Amino acid sequence: MKTAVTIAGANAKDSAFVVWRGFEKSIRKASEYGYDGVELALKRADEIDRKQLREWLKDNHMEVSCITTGQVFADLGLYFTHPDPEKRKETIQVFSNLIDLAEEFGGIINAGRTRGFVGEGQTREEAEKLFVDAMRALCDRAAAKKVQMLIEPVNRYEINFVNNLDEGARLLSKVERENCGLHADVFHMNIEDDRIGDSLIRNGKWVKYVHLADSNRLAPGLGHLNFDEVFEALKTIHYDGWVSVEILPGDNPDWMAGKAIHYIKPKVTDYMPY
Question: Quick check: 14 pLDDT over 90?
Fold first, then answer.
């Protein structure tokens, strides 16, 4: 198990839900604070220079854990269930470029709200079909590059489609691709899933990546979530992937990032899957 923290470019808008901004500086800080890698929040693949990224990672002995796509939804207004076929086509192209980037960096693409929602005048069945069609197309492209396509269930107050792990697993079973899976975020699970531990175990075969944040979306340890339950469930399902800190940075991102790694590092160090 390895630890990561969310970062974005220096000019990323507020919709980039990250701890640090500015790629080079953030990679250096993540290394200094004791993280193993960084999660890149991008809206387009050309936001970052591959050669520079390669050098920054090498210089700081870091890895990319995952590429996340929240800004594709929030800034570009693109998503899988968009009613406009041209927008859906553009969404597929943006993701295809990010998949090309992930082939070298991280090997995982996350689709949070970019998986879309049930829009006005649209039935849930129609939204599900558009989602499945998009995921199949992207998984096929990703498979050729040994990249995983993951969806992240997000709570009902942010989107009305795929809110918990059970719903995500049900939809992924319709996609019928081996390189698709779930990106489990315990902040959202605390709102939507029956019990975090039980849901992780029940859907364990789908869980390929984990976001950590406490109940108040601050650093783990600053709210009331039971992280012992989380890590015990991860042990039960033999999870051996990344745990990534996606939290509100507050007024002092350095302090918040330090608080997070200080809390989770002992749990990761002691972690041995059953």
Answer: no
Is 269 exposed, middle or buried (CB count within 10 Å of its CB: 0-12, 13-18, 19+)?
Answer: exposed
CA–CA dist 20, 261 (Å, integer): 14
pLDDT band at 270 (very low <50, low <70, confident <90, very high): confident
* pTM given for the model: 0.94
Burial annotation 9-40 (CB, 10 A radius, 16+ → b, else e): beebeeebbbbbbebeebbbbbbebebbbbbb
Q: Which residues are catalytic?
A: 152, 246
- Band of residue 274 on the pLDDT scale cut at 50, 70, 90: low
Topology (CATH) of 2-269: TIM Barrel (3.20.20)
